[in-house]
Amino acid sequence: MDTVNDRLAPPGPIAWRVDLRDDAAPAAGTTLRRPFTAQALRLPAHVAEVLRETPDGGGFVVLQLPSGQATPYELQAEAEAWASADGIAAAEVLVRSVRVLWRPGRAVCTGPAADSEEVIAGLVHFTRVERALAALEAEIDGQWAAWQDDLPLTHGVGRRDLSRQRHVNAMTAAAHGYRMRFVRLEAALESPSADLPPLGRRVFSELVLLADALSRLRALDDAIEIGQDLYDTANDRLLEYSYFRREYVIEIFILAVLMVELAATAVQIGLGLP
């Protein structure tokens, strides 16, 4: 009986396009459950075609090369240059008899087919996690200008600021959403998925170190805390002012009613009315 490795093992160099889908629906691929449920579908492609392409930043392509003389030296050199194109250095990992070059969007895996299959599983999983980390970094980086604009709401608000309550509510929810994503990413980076084979777990852990993923995540921790504190405080100030304004209006209304009653009483007394 043939195995998955037998069916996927290439007779020679081959490229795999990995389609990472952000949904939980079952598909004819591998289900990735951490940090967020997704589907990874591998589709074969021609090596020469892939090497000529300009990366678009949205996909993930793996060149799987047999070790030794099965892969010509010229192709090995071209694959290494492809992995480090555009001045982006590729991280290098050696696990058992497999050599891996990885960078966002592409990887080269050179070694025996059976071992390479386990390694590719780790590459796909790490790419998914690193991509989620990069997305969170980009989103938070895009919030600094808004956070700066909303900073005055933490220490003094007025009547006009009440119109910003909906905006503050949305930003508060976004900040706490960042915290939830942070916690899930932290768990995914610190402990590889139990579904990964041994070599996949090793390459995942090595890439976490080489990509400085945990340090990048720690840097986000402080930024998320700033966002949470800012909008929690802004919400408190707006609510306090809203309550104060409501009570002030009610007190003015009561005072006005009392003044009217007092004036009416004075008129009655002045006219000698019972």
Automatic annotation (TrEMBL):
Keyword list, A-Z: Membrane, Transmembrane, Transmembrane helix
Residue ranges of the TM segments: 248-271
Tagged with keyword Transmembrane helix: yes
Name of the protein in question: DUF155 domain-containing protein
Organism name: Neoroseomonas marina
